[in-house]
Structures are given as C-alpha cells and as structure tokens.
Fold each of these.
Amino acid sequence: MARSRKRTTISIRKLIIFHHSSGKSVRNVAKLVNLYHSTGQYVMKRFKEENRIENKVREGRPAKLTERDQRFIIRKFVKNRRLSALKVSSEFNEKFSTPISPEIVRRVLRAAGLNGRSTRRKFFVNFEKQKAHAFFRKINVE
C-alpha cells in the first residue's frame, strides 16, 4: 500500500500560486502558508506544466474492504488455521453489510503472508499403540 500524504486544500494551493505570481519566492510563500518549500515547488510546477490546481482523478476500482475488515479476516485465521475461506466469507457476510466472496478472503490472506496449506496426514495412534510405543522406548533406552 502506498503511503498516504497530507493533502493541501485547493484554497491553500490558490494562495501559493497567488503569492508566487506576485513576486515572492517559493520559500517565503511556504513560510506564509506554513508548509514545506518542496510542497510549494510541487504546486507551482504542476500549475506551470499542466495548468491545474486540483488533483487528478484516481484510477482503478476503490478497495472493497477497509483495513478493519481485513484485520477481522486475518484474526479469524490466526485464531483457527483450519477455517476455510468459504466459512470466513459467510461469517463476514453475516456480520458486515459488505458482501464478499471466498476469493477476496484468500487475496487478503495472501497479502498478509498467510498462504494456504493442507494438513499433513498422520496415522491414528490409539491408547494401546501409545502404550506399546512407550514400552519399546523404555527397552531401547535401558
């Protein structure tokens, strides 16, 4: 995820352009509006090259899940690793108003570094076999 920056308002950008066009340096303008001089330079550069003050329209589809929703999904799997994505998505759909598919759950988990694994098949060891194992261990140790 990209780092979110503090956005300057359009009125402050207009103020920067006004002061700069009246002959003040970028550093002086930045001190006046209480911003870094690099922010003032960026606003002026964009105004000169592209003749715009507003932000560009964002591209791409907005994220369906918030960070809170993602934490909910991750927490479910950290508590119980044997859950399926289908069960978590159905539980999520019951609790929250945003409907999601199991694939979205898998995508969130992969992004968090939790990859799917199938459990290892193990032999069933009943009580009698356990006693036999313990008996043989005592013989081998002595």
Amino acid sequence: MPTMHSAISPAVTAEHPQNKWYKHLYVQVLIAVAIGILLGHFYPNAAQAMKPLGDNFLKLVKLMVAPLIFCTVVHGIASMRDIKAVGRLGGKALIYFEVMTTLALAIGLLVVNIMKPGVGMHVDPATLDASSIAAYTKAAHEQTVVGYLSHIIPHTVIGAFAEGDLLQVLFISVIFAFALQMLGEKGKPMLDVIDSAANTFFNMVRIVMYVSPLGAFGAIAFTIGKYGIGSLASYGQLLATYYLTAVLFVVIVLGAVCRLAGFSLFRFLRYIREELLIVLGTSSSESALPRLMAKLERLGCDKSAVGLVVPSGYSFNLDGSCINMTVLAIFIAQATDTYLSLGHQITLLAILLLTSKGAASVSGGAFIVLAATLGTIPGFPVAGLVLVLGVYRFISEGGAIVNVIGNGIATIVVAKWEKVLDEETLHRELQQGPDFN
C-alpha cells in the first residue's frame, strides 16, 4: 500500500531545478494576489464580484478537512502500540499551547502600549453606531464557558462532519481511534481502509490546489475592492503596530523555539511558503491545513503527532489571533480615552487566556471572542469595535499566517519532545526545500 507521502508528493526532486518558475504554486499564488490587489484598487465593483472565487475555493478545502483529520487522527492513534504515549503527546501539546499563547498575548500588550496607535484619536463612544457589530455582540453574549465545552460534543456523528467543526471532529476521532485500537488484530482491515481513505483525500487536496491561485485572487480582490487601500493608510499606525508585534513574535519567540529544537525558522518558512501565500490570499488558516499536515509528515513528524497537534492547535494555539485581540483591545481603549490600569490589562490577558481557546469554534471567532471579553471589563466601550471593523480583514490575514506558522512549529517541537520525529529527515527536507507543488 502506498504511504501518505507518496500519495501527495511525487518524486520530482531530481527534476526540481529544471522546473519552470511559473509552474511553482507559490509563484502562481503571488501573481494572483498581485493581480487581485490591482483589480480591487482600480476596479472595485468588478473586484467585489470576484468574491465567489474565494468563497468556493474555501468550500472545496473545507470539504476535505473534516474527513482528512478523522483519517489522520484515527490511523495515527490506532497504530500506536503504547496507548499511554497518546496521552503524553496530548498533554505536552496543551502545555506548549498555553505557554505560546500566553507569550503572544503578553507581547501584544507590550508593543501596543509602547506604540500607542490609538492615542490622540479622542473618539466619543456615544457617537458610535454599534449596529454594524450587532451580530458579533449577540454571538458574543451567547458564548459561555459551559456552552463552549458543551459544543465540543456534537449532537450526532454526521453533524460534526457536516458542520466541519474541527474540535467536534477531533473529539469523535480520538474516541473512534481508541475503540479501534482496542480491537487489536480484528481492527487491522478497518485501519487499512482508513489509511487508503487518507491517501485519497490527500490526492483530492492536491487536485484542488490547482485552482488555489483563483481562490486567492478572488478573495484578495474582494477585500481590496470592498474596504479599499485607503483604509490601510487611515489605520496605518494600528496595522504597523499589529504586524510589528506579529513579526517580533515569529522571529524572536518562535525563532528561539526553533533554535532550541535544532532547526532553522527561516528554512521552515521557506518550506511552507505556498501555504502561507494561500492563507494571505484567502485570510483563512484552514485553507492551508491539509497541505500543512502533509508537509509536516514529510518533514519526519509521526502521523500520531500531526494528527493530534495540528487539529488541536487550530483551536488551542492561535498565536496570531491572541496578538490580534490584545492589540485591538488596547487600541480601542486608547482611541476612546478609556483608562486601563496595569491591573485591568493583566486581568484582560488572564481572561483572554481562557476565551481565546474558543476563537476557532465559530465564524469570525476572534472578533466575537474579543467582543465577549471586552464586555466583561466594567466601563469598557464595546461599541469601540466599530472603529476596527473596516480594517479587521487586513489584520486577520496576518493572524491567520502566524497561526499556521505557530502550529507547524508546535507539531515539530512536540514530536521531538515525544521522540516521534525523524530529525535526519527534517534536516534533509529543510535543506532541499519542498519538491511538490
């Protein structure tokens, strides 16, 4: 039976140097994004009509995410002889997630207090029309800790896959994997079927990626056409603060983690450049999830580590979204002249440590979680979210990119921590670069 690697990555290493530059996926996506930006700027009405291209590409990817996670998680866990190792791996992943998200929140608070992008705006919250964020604040009001925990358990098995909820699919996958592992040799035929299904879904991903430049073009054209490049200039200091924070987190914090784990951050970024460009174009980290999982396995991470860490990281390790929430919260406070003491800011950080874990469970998750969190701070003008609604799309793109980078690194680190990483393969692959497009 062919392995997952062979199913998604044809052996073209020897031919790689001879490939035409325009045949590389990252080049095609980059060109598509550039054309989309130009169309959005000069022909905004036509650009907004391109929205279905981005939406339908994301639908194609999400179509395969749930079954792909199910197959990968089940095969990874059910294949392990030492079932206690699954618990250790999951526990270590959660510890890592908590440390990284805490650092992301803290760095966000530090940089926004130094840069002060909202100081001097003197916006009166009473003059703001909160109708444009009514849907977000209503959803935020409905988000409770008990509700979030209850949401992890789906009403039906089919419902979890139909809705594409990653946490629910992960929950079902883990239970199914343990049940299959308990069957022993009797479960081997089922395990083989699941492995074949995983290979098939990865091949489906490979087919869908041929149209990813169209998806990136449609999504970025719509964003620029609807919100305009002018909004980037008017919120230039806020965007500069956010992206500076994101770069500092990736280069300093994640760079240090990579060095401690024995590999280069920048070689890893080069290795996943196609996925990062797809995320940039679509503003969705889910669009890169299938290919990210494939590349992490190719880098030498065991299936069990990839299957557990990546899907759970998409819910519990949203570093970019954490930076996003702290920067926006303090920006709104500065813009509306709302005083937040050091104690208030530490309280905000502590609350976000809990509420940020639910950011992936609903559409527009980070914005809804931010609204819910700000509502818990006495006297905070939640209506101030109106100030950042127009530029939020550009900020969420950066957050999605950081989320993908953070979860890729988390998988390698946890796999090494649990001794299920082939380090020789890791260094060879990072040295050579990806050879499948």
Amino acid sequence: MTNSVHEHGWTAVPRSLDTLVASRKDPKPSKPVKIEDIATPDSPLVQAVMEYAQARLPSEAFNHSMRVFYYGQAITSQHFADWHYSAETYLLTALLHDIGTTAANQESTQLSFEFQGGIISLDLLKSLKAELSQAEAVAETIIRHQDIGDTGNVTTLTAVTHFATILDNAGLNGELVHEDTIKSVTAKYPRNAWTGCFASVVRRERELKPWSNTTRIEGFAEMVEANKLMEPYDAKL
C-alpha cells in the first residue's frame, strides 16, 4: 500500500491552496523552465490514453490538458519537491480531467461533468489494464478537480491538478510559474482563445445542469474571463 500511495499521489495534503502556498519550507521565486526540460512519460498506457484524448477532445481542450501537465510539473519541482506521485499518473490525469466536458459526454448524463469524467476515466484505465490504485487515483482527482476550498484534505495528485488547472483557467497563483515557462509551454500548446472556450463550457454546464458541481463556484465564468495572467497568450481565433 505504501508504494502505491507514493507512486500514485495518494498522500493527504490540505485542500486549501493558500495553506499549501504558505506551508512551503523555503519559498523562493519561480525559475524559468523550458518545456523540453520536463520529462514526458511515453509508456504504452500513456500512448493509448493520449490517442483516446486527442480523438475526443477539441484541440483547445487537448492543449489545455497538456499545459496542465507541464505547469503542474514545474510547480511541483520548484515549490513542493517533497510531494510524491509518478509523472505517468499525473499525465493520465491531465489528459482525462476534462473528458466529461465534450458535447457527447456532457449531454449524455445528468451527472456533473467531473463525476462523469471520473467514471469514464476509471473504466477506460481499467480496460487498459492500469493498476487499480493508479486508475482510482486518476478518477478521484478528476471527480475533485474543481473541489477547491478551505477545509479538509485532498491527495497530492489532486492538489497539483488544482494548482495547474486554476493557473491556466483563471490565472491564480501565477507566482508559482515563471513567465518564461508560460511562454515555452504556450508556444508548443497554444491557448487559441481557451479563455472564451472554457467560459462557454462553464456556462453550458450550468444551463444543462443547474444542480451541477460547477454552480458551487460563484461567478466562475466571469473569473475565467478575467484571467489577466494568460491574456497575452490567449490569441483570438
């Protein structure tokens, strides 16, 4: 159990991002990281999930997923180096975290898109013979990847996903990633008006499912649209 806990990021950490930022033992300014210096897993499992995600996600959402991976790895390596999770498990999470937002998946269920995405991802990874602990870690994180708040705990895998998704979507905690890192990541995986795309996804979720988990984040679409950190990279199509 201990090995799978470390391998797949099951260690509990505070849910509060402010608490996590304040808890750093030796806080230092972020340093620039080039995307090519961040190792990208390339196992058969990753390849299969990469093909699955590319075939189903719009290009804007796929690029967002890849940015989430690279930003998360940059954040962890510089600010939370004692966190344990495998790069493979995190990449699988990043690739699949928004799979529930595709038109087909969002409209085929009454479930909130994160819950639908978690179930889809769990079934997919089990069908691909992923280790159960890994498949469940990915599903847990996808289900909770918008569960940002001040109380309780999440897994380290969920925490890094929180940091990376909210950075890319809303520009929060921008001090955790150097500007040159953002330039390097967006050069390979451009935003292509992602701000407007994701704001539309949020509004569609709220319209289709007025009970959905997304409704707990007040003014979410407006928060996304006010993303000043990423505005210079958010070229309009």
Amino acid sequence: MAPEKNITAEDLPSLLENDNKVKLAGLDVDGILRGKLVSKKKFLSIASAGFGFCSVIFGWDMHDQTYLQELKISNAENGYHDLLAIPDLSSFRRIPWENNTPFFLITFHDPDTKKPISPCPRGLLKMQLAKLQEKGYGAMAGAEYEFYTFRNPDPTHSSPASFLQQNPPHQLPSLTEGMFGYSITRPVHNQDYYYDVYDTCAAFKCDIEGWHTESGPGVFEAALEFGEIAQMADRASMFKYVVKSVGVKYGITPCFMAKPKSGLPGNSGHVHVSLVDKDGKNLLARDTPDENAEWDDIKHLSDIGRHFLAGLLEGISDVMPILAPNINSYKRLVENFWAPVTVSWGLEHRAASIRLIGPPTAKGGATRFEVRVPGADTNPHYVMAAILGCGWRGVEKKLKIPCPPLAAGQNVGGDADKGERLAKSLKEAVAKFKAEGSIAREVFGDEFVDHYAGTRENEVRLFDEAVTDWEMKRYIETV
C-alpha cells in the first residue's frame, strides 16, 4: 500500500469543502477507538494545535469502570484532567457507512510537555520505531485476524448490546455451523455481509489481502495488506471498526475474543514483521546462504535477522500481557489447539511462537518473522511495539539465538520441545512483566509498564472476585 498522503493544515479547507462535520478518534490501552464528532469549524481551529480530551479513557477499563487502583496518568487526585489530543492529518479517510464523514486518528500528549503520554498506543509504537529510524532503518508489517460471528435471531434487537441482553453469551447462535475452513461455498450463505466487509475495508483504506472462512462455526480470517508498520497498526484497528460497524446492518455480532468457545480453536492475531533500509531493501535476507550456520533454518537469515530473532525469543515471556492481554487470552494458549505455548521458533513451523518465513519456501525479499502468540483480542499498536522493542534490543545487544529450532513434525510442548513455557494466566504474565529489571521495563520504561500492569491487574482482580457459570453449574447442588 502506498504511503499516506502528506496532508497539511492548509489543505483542509479544500479537502473538507463539502463537509460540515468531522469524526476524531484515538486508541485506549485495550485498542478500543474512543472519539467524538465535531463541527468542521471546530476541527479547523484545532487541527494543528490539538484540543483537550478527557484522560479518563486511560483511567477506566473497557466497560468504563474506573480502575480499582488509581493510576498515574488519570485519577481522582488529578481530576481526570484533559490530555492534549492532536489529529494526525495523514490518517485522513472517509467513513463509507456514515455518509462518507471525514475521519482522523488522534495521538494523546501530555498537556505540559507536549510529548505523547506513555500508554498512548500510537505514540508507543512510534517511540520504538524511532530507535530503528535513528539507524536509517524502517519496519514493515502485516496482520491476520480471525473472528467468530454470531447471528441476531431477533431483528428487533438491532444493537449488539440488546442482542446480548436477550441471548446468554454461551447460547449465541453462530452465523454458520460446523467446521469448514477455506470454504468457497460457505461465504455464499452470507455473501452480502462477506463482500461488504471486503469492499468497505478497501473504501476505508484498511485493505484486505486475503479473506476466507476459518475452521470453526461462523469463523472468518482476514489477512490485511502488508505495509509500513505504523500505518499497519492503524489499519488493523480500523479493520475491527469496519467489521463491527458493517455487522450492525446485517444483525451480525463479530467476536474477537481469543477463545469464545471451549473445545474449539481460538481467534489468532498473528503479526508479520520485517526490517528494511532506507531504499526498502529487506534486511533480514542473507545475500548468499551461510553453509556454516548453526542450524539450516537460519542459513538464509542475515546477522541482523538472527539478532532480532534472539531478541524476540529472549523478550517474549516478559511482554506476555501485551501479546495476551485478557483473562480469556490464556484459554487460547493451550496445547493441541494450533496455538504456541512455549518460547520456540522454526523455519516455516506453524507450531512455534515465532515462525521464520524465507528461502527456500519464500523469496529473500519476503523474509520475515510471523509472531504467532498474539490473539485477535490484542491492541495492534502495543503488539507491534513489543515486537520491534524486543527484536531491536536483540540487535543492539547482538544477542545469540538461545534455543534450537523446532524440528519438522515436532509439536510445541512435546517431549522434544524444551522451550520455556509461556505464562498460563494473566496474573502470572503481569508478575513477570512488571518485575524489577524485566525486559519490558528495559524496552518501554517504568512509566508505561507501571500503568499497563495496573490495568491488567484490574482485570485479574475483577475475575478473581467473579462467580462464573461454571462454578454455579458444578457446585450449586453437590457441595
């Protein structure tokens, strides 16, 4: 995809000549778009200098409940003060399903220092990307998202909220039944929705490269068009926005939970990353094969690629709350469900945490890493920031790959796999993430780690205090 157009404030009057309103939105820690509609007059007055936006979106959870432990960025003591929200003019697009209303993404800044606040997803990714750019390098990325779809059996309940009130989550009817991945007939059953998602993504500049059914009832998978990493993260967030918005008019509720149904595969959110120089040349590919490589898997991988891989492998356990951010995320990361559970890697190995893609199965220019730990429930900006941050730390420290690749036919978690087991719960993951001297602290800094850890500890506490349906069904009569 071509780079976003360099739009200036001087371009806005003509760009918005026939409009009277603009929609603005930024991302919170859960990757949820939060924003508002403003008049064109208001937007033109704030386009360069920015405007005040209540910091509470970094002080409450995904259901607008303030965190049980107040955090530094936004709390009662500072009055949930305003942040400085600055529109990114290069993010301009129009919302096809809302009468082509103009839309801009925003980045959140400290009103005093004018720097992006540490938990701002777009700012965090750009901070990690800047480390590469100082050396004249850049990064490319792609994202793949799987999601379940549920049908609203009662057309009078048009909104997902009323739909869920009338249907217990475990009884939601799937859009289609049975397991039929890569089916070319199943999309015909809901072809208006299926093609509307594809076409609307193109119109909203978050183009889909591949779009198909995945194994599972009512499950789809989209591979988004590969591109520059910061733009890719924006488009990944836009993709979820499109899917959910288009679903409303068809009475369809998409679900990006990591594991919506027990006994069935979960929803992955795999991310592909490569490094490039200023001319766009792939930096992970080796010009000539290294016949003396420690393993055949890396004989086509450059030295910088090997260090980057080592950084990912060394850091992945410490950033698990980013790659698996919710209680439910860890229900996906279990053995025998096409999801990685250990620190592992391998050439073209889909059972590993990190799949190396390159020669001989792919051309050198397509050499990349596919990080397979994240689920579809992740914040794409945080995930890509974590991949860049951990990988580049490996480059800077010239780390060596700490473990051998998985052999062909070898499953993660098997007797032959001696890789470190990834965290089995959010509580375990957060403890390692926020530990003194963690790689997460080294890469992101204490302010971000303390804030984000606090948001995840809030999820843990709420779950610890919850009484689940499973508990009621198991114990109501027998204990």
